């Protein structure tokens, strides 16, 4: 029974590797006890001393027939949210499945509960501890819990008492519900509400104002945001006072989940009115005009501070002020310049803020002393000698009123009367009159009026100069002689002089009795005045009389005069005709008559001053200004060239060597005529607007035109494209290539009809297409890629070719044949395959492009390498293997398979073949169902064929095994304390492989080992090295079956680190501190305990060895009870493989490695990995000799002619397996795909896309393997043959 229970316990999936070892050692001891007979007690004691940890399991196994019972049951638990809760459950003699129940829901028997990431069962399974641990507790964890042990063969089910978890949840951040956006007003009452939300239990709220607790608060609760959560509301009424402004209003919330209350605060804002204002700077109420007052209005207190304004007679003067936050006052300075209008004005300053019931003010009335604004003299200051003048003086309003006095020069005159009246701004006006008879001696004296103000002690005066008139004495002229002729247009100067008189005389020029207004301004000289008349002589000046008059305000005139003789051209020219309409081909007669001229001229004719014409002259006649007039006629035959030309008539005077001209503009009627500059061809870009100009002339200019295109008349109305302007030019909007061609225009006027033709050439950007796509060509032949463009114009060099693939390829020869672009590539290689871009550019945007696919056909090329030539799978008939063959080739590749040289028959249901094609990549996968060692461990040959050739790959299906050694081991980088290495992985043995780096420095006797992380990485950096030190490095691969030899045939890579850079600190201080950091008493305790354990273990080993020698047994009978039992069932087969850990003694063991504990290195339990306890070291230490992990014999054998051959060397056996089911879990886990960069059988363009999908598929395959389908459950034809 004990052995059966051991077997059952070993088969339990929940028993870990360490417990299995303990159970196995216990089983060996128990079996030895039965064999030993009388010495059984000694054997059992020896086994217990060797394996002291087996005692609890022995008690557990021997007590499996007793009823299960709770040693510890869960109790109610109160937990703060976010803490870790542990419900304790300890079962004595547990034989059934133990699991927890939450609110009636079974959570499952696993230690890590699926679906509950925060839930797990913890404790020592050997002691029956199944404590429920809940991490980061939440509100949803508040529930009832039970611990249950299920029914078993030897015990009834038991259920613990119900335990509750009660959650303590602190309130969320409390918040105040009071509107502080609008400040409070002093004296008003306000309700303050504080809410502490989502607490369990409800929170207690306390309100404070400036640190003083507010009494009378009322509290109530409401439901929170979730079930079981409560919101606490607290309300209190507060009366605002001015001292509350800027102080804190606080709310504290507290419940048992908090160690201290949570708090929220708010600053109170309280408004209150200011104090009345005062005015500074006004000492007395009487102020002189023109003074500037600087007045300051100050108002203290108030929140906000007062706003100030100045008013004068209730009109606002200023609304600006300054605020002093520190002194808590507002002040406004008024700069006021005093004016007479300010007399008796009331000046007021007002202060107010938003909470004042009414403005507060202070006011003062001011009296202004001011002088009269104006003193005005009334009357005329000019008089003729001997007359009386009457004068008046008026002074405007002043305060006080003024006294007026008169002065002529320095002589005071007597007044004839004074008067005063009320004036503006509260002042008085004054008026004074005076009469005086003038003489020639008074001329030029000042007549002054003085107004004196007794209040301001200032006087204001007004004066003017007295002017007395008397007549001039003499006048004479300075002019050219009257009998000398002067040419018309000549400038002459006529000067008139006058002396004497007051004022000086005014000189006036007259021509034939009419005043001349364009004479120069009169000038003065020492004795009198002069005025000059500058004449540009005209025909009217011939024999005219020029007179100069001198007069002044004394009203007496004297004069002088002269005459001039002038030569001049004809004063007018006129051309006339009797024909009203002038038409092409008619004879036109023109008459030319000249006006008065002196002396007589002659008539000349010309056409536009270019060609001279001959006319017929008539006898002269007398005319104005003493001159003569002449006349002449001309006849002209008209044509269209005469239209708008000028016929010029000139009256030429020989004495003046020039003549007078006039012209007659010809208006010749003729039918439409096209200009020689009319373009015959117009070019325009497509989609632009084309303008075909019409260079046309006609008379009359009213011309009607029609446009024709391709013999069809163009209609403007309703057309989206055609439009012609007022000058009949044709506009074509959004021109397309169909608009190209010849356009004919016919134009008509009253005189006739005419027509012209214009060619429209439409230019457009190219469009391009491939003549053939894709282009297929065999490897090594010539490829021609052709693209054809539609464009106008077609220009040379408009085609360019571009490679669109990655990298660079050698482009071929580019050529152009009219509208076709040609790219020729000779000796095509596979690198030429891909997309090519043909671009066409005729200098009209945008250029056009087209892509042409070049497909290079080549024979199949199979993927080959370590990951392709081997496939590993167990041959026990429970697994499925996939043999993958991938080829690249064009055209389509077909696959054929052979096994051991024989064509495979896929009608057999044990073999399935699936082919996937992706571009040029073709993948054929043969799926072998229920892999059999005898039938399927063979060489599979894959042949890929197409029309150009074939390729063959041999793939070996083998048993899962240890990996092959890596290759190309080398250095990437080196620094003063690290070395970076890389390598290429080889075949992984059918399992997930990892890598381990072995190194040592040249002065060391043992190696250091470090596992590469992440496990699949092929580049790794070894750190913690010493500067300027030589190290030896090696790397090998490991999987669950074992490890490979070291890379590159056990090659050693020797590298010396660099010197330490300046400024980099050393590690001496930290090492010394860590080494001495262990207290002395702990060192003594650890030493004593270790010594006692060492003595007990030595005694147990001694007695155990003596007992084994007496029995004459060796240690080579297999590693476990299960193996022995299985060998017995298979016919008494024996294994020569030892399960002991072997180390070679060629090298010394690192002394630090002797003080180590066996740890899990991430692969198997008996891996030779030791974690050092040396201070500060994180490396693994291994014996320096080469080693291989011990393996049990594979359960499969090769039988031939009834002779059984067992492998002698476990390392040379082709089919290897692991000892227990625990290692199968590693094998199954290792069936997940290797990193894509190492062993990825997918297509290159599928690797990135399916990386996230590869692992779920592999996990699905792993689940299939974990629950194998036995041969007995399969049809006969699908059963594998087990040997």
Automatic annotation (TrEMBL):
Residues 52-160, 174-267, 276-367, 372-466, 472-559, 584-651, 766-851, 860-958 form the Ig-like domain. It is found in: Membrane. InterPro entries: CD80_C2-set, Cell_adhesion_signaling, FN3_dom, FN3_sf, Ig-like_dom, Ig-like_dom_sf, Ig-like_fold, Ig_I-set. GO terms for biological process: cell-cell adhesion. The chain crosses the membrane at residues 1080-1105. Gene3D superfamilies: Immunoglobulins. Coiled coil: none annotated. SUPFAM superfamilies: Fibronectin type III, Immunoglobulin. Residues 1112-1140, 1234-1283 are annotated as: Disordered. Keywords: Disulfide bond, Glycoprotein, Immunoglobulin domain, Membrane, Repeat, Transmembrane, Transmembrane helix. It is a single-pass type I membrane protein. This is Nephrin. It comes from Champsocephalus gunnari.
């Amino acid at each position: 029974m004990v052995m059966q229970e051991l077997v059952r316990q070993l088969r339990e999936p929940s028993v870990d590797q360490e417990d299995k070892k303990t159970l196995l050692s216990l089983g060996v001891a128990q079996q030895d006890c039965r064999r030993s007979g009388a010495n059984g007690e000694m054997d059992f004691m020896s086994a217990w001393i060797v394996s002291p940890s087996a005692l609890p399991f022995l008690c557990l196994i021997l007590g499996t027939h007793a009823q299960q019972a709770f040693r510890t049951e869960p109790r109610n638990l109160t937990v703060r949210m976010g803490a870790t809760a542990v419900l304790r459950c300890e079962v004595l003699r547990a034989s059934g499945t133990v699991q927890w129940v939450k609110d009636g829901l079974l959570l499952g028997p696993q230690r890590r509960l699926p679906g509950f990431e925060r839930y797990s069962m913890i404790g020592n399974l050997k002691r029956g501890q199944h404590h429920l641990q809940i991490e980061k507790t939440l509100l949803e964890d508040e529930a009832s819990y039970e611990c249950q042990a299920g029914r078993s063969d030897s015990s009834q089910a038991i259920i613990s008492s119900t335990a509750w978890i009660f959650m303590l949840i602190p309130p969320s951040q409390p918040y105040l519900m009071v509107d502080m956006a609008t400040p409070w007003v002093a004296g008003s009452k306000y309700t303050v509400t504080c809410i502490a939300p989502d607490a369990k239990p409800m929170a207690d709220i306390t309100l404070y104002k400036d640190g003083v607790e507010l009494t009378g608060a009322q509290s109530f609760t409401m439901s929170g945001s979730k079930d079981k959560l409560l919101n606490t509301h607290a309300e209190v009424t507060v009366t605002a006072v001015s001292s509350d402004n800027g102080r804190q209003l606080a709310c504290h919330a507290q419940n048992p989940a908090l160690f201290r209350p949570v708090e929220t605060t708010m600053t109170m804002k309280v408004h209150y009115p200011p104090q009345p204002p005062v005015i500074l700077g006004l000492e007395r109420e009487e102020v002189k005009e023109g003074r500037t007052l600087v007045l300051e209005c100050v108002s203290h207190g108030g929140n906000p501070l007062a706003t100030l304004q100045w008013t004068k007679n209730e009109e606002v003067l200023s609304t600006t002020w300054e605020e002093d936050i520190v002194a808590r006052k507002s002040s406004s300075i008024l700069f006021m310049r005093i004016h007479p209008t300010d007399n008796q004005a009331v000046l007021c300053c007002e202060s107010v803020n938003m909470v004042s019931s009414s403005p507060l003010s202070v006011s003062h009335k001011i009296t202004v002393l001011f002088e009269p604004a104006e003193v005005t003299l009334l009357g005329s200051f000019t008089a003729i000698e001997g007359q009386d003048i009457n004068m008046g003086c008026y002074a405007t309003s002043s305060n006080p009123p003024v006294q007026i006095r008169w002065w002529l020069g320095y002589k005071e005159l007597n007044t004839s009367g004074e008067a005063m009246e009320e004036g503006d701004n509260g002042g008085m006006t004054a008026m004074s009159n005076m009469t005086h008879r003038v003489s020639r001696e008074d001329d030029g004296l000042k007549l002054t009026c003085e107004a004196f103000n007794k209040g301001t002690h200032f006087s204001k005066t007004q004066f003017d100069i007295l002017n007395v008139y008397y007549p001039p004495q003499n006048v004479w002229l300075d002019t050219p002689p009257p009998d000398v002729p002067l040419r018309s247009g000549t400038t002459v100067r006529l000067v008139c002089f006058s002396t004497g008189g007051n004022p000086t005389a005014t000189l006036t020029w007259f021509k034939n009795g009419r005043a001349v207004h364009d004479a120069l301004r009169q000038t003065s000289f020492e004795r009198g005045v002069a005025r000059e008349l500058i004449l540009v002589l005209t025909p009217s000046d011939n024999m005219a009389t020029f007179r100069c008059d001198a007069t002044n305000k004394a009203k007496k005139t004297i004069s002088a005069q002269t005459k001039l003789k002038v030569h001049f051209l004809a004063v007018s020219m006129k051309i006339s005709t009797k024909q009203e309409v002038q038409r092409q081909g008619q004879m036109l007669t023109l008459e030319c008559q000249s006006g008065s001229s002196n002396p007589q001229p002659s008539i000349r004719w010309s056409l536009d001053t270019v060609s001279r014409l001959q006319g017929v002259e008539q006898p002269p006649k007398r005319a104005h200004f003493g001159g003569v007039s002449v006349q002449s006629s001309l006849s002209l035959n008209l044509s269209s060239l005469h239209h708008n030309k000028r016929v010029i008539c000139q009256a030429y005077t020989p004495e003046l060597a020039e003549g007078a001209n006039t012209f007659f503009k010809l208006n010749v009627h003729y039918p439409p005529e096209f200009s020689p500059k009319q373009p015959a061809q117009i070019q325009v870009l497509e989609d632009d607007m084309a303008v075909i100009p019409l260079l046309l002339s006609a008379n009359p200019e009213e011309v009607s035109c029609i446009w024709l295109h391709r013999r069809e008349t163009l209609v403007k109305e309703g057309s989206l494209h055609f439009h012609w302007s007022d000058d009949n030019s044709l506009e074509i909007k959004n021109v397309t290539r169909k608009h190209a061609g010849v356009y004919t225009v016919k134009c008509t006027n009253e005189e006739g009809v005419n027509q012209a033709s214009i060619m429209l050439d439409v230019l457009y950007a190219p469009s391009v297409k491939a003549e053939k796509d894709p282009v297929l060509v065999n490897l090594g032949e010539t490829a021609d890629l052709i693209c054809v463009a539609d464009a106008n114009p077609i220009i040379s060099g408009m085609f360019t070719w571009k490679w669109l693939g990655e990298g660079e390829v050698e482009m071929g020869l580019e050529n152009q044949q009219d509208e076709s672009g040609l790219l020729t590539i000779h000796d095509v290689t596979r690198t030429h395959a891909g997309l090519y871009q043909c671009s066409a550019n005729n200098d009209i945007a945008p250029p056009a492009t087209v892509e042409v696919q070049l497909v290079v056909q080549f024979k199949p090329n199979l993927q080959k390498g370590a990951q392709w030539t081997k496939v590993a799978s167990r041959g026990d008939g429970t697994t499925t293997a996939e043999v993958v063959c991938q080829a690249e080739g064009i055209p389509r590749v077909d696959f054929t398979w052979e096994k051991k040289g024989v064509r495979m028959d896929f009608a057999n249901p044990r073999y399935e073949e699936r082919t996937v094609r992706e571009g040029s990549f073709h993948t054929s996968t043969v799926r072998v169902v229920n892999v059999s060692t005898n039938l399927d461990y063979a060489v599979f040959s894959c042949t890929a064929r197409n029309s150009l050739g074939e390729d063959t790959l041999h793939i070996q299906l083998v048993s899962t095994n240890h990996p092959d050694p890596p290759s190309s081991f080398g250095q990437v980088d080196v620094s003063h304390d690290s070395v970076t290495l890389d390598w290429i992985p080889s075949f992984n043995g059918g399992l997930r492989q990892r890598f381990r780096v072995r190194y040592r420095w040249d002065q060391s006797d043992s190696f250091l080992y470090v596992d590469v992380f992440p496990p699949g990485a092929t580049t790794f950096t070894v750190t913690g090295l010493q500067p300027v030190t030589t190290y030896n490095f090696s790397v090998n691969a490991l999987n669950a079956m074992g490890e490979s030899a070291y890379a590159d045939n056990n090659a050693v890579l020797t590298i010396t680190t660099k010197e330490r850079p300046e400024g980099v600190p050393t590690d001496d201080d930290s090492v010394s501190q860590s080494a001495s950091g262990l207290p002395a008493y702990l060192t003594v305790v650890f030493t004593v305990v270790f010594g006692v354990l060492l003595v007990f273990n030595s005694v147990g080993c001694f007695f155990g060895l003596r007992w084994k020698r007496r029995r004459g047994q060796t240690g080579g009978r297999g590693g476990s009870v299960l193996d022995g039992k299985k060998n017995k069932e298979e016919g008494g087969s024996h294994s020569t493989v030892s399960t002991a850990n072997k180390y070679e003694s060629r090298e010394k063991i690192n002394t630090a490695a002797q003080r180590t504990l066996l740890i899990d290195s991430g692969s198997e339990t008996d891996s030779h990995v030791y974690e050092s306890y040396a201070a500060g070291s994180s490396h693994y230490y291994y014996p320096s000799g080469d080693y291989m992990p011990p393996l049990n014999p594979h359960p499969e054998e090769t039988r031939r002619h009834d002779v059984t051959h067992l492998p002698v060397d476990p390392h040379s056996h082709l089919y290897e397996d692991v000892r227990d089911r625990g290692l199968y879990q590693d094998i199954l886990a290792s069936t997940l795909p290797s990193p894509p960069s190492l062993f990825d059988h997918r297509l290159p363009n599928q690797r990135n896309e399916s990386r996230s999908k590869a692992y779920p598929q592999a996990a699905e395959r792993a689940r299939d393997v974990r629950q194998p389908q036995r041969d007995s459950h399969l049809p006969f034809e699908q059963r594998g043959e087990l040997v």
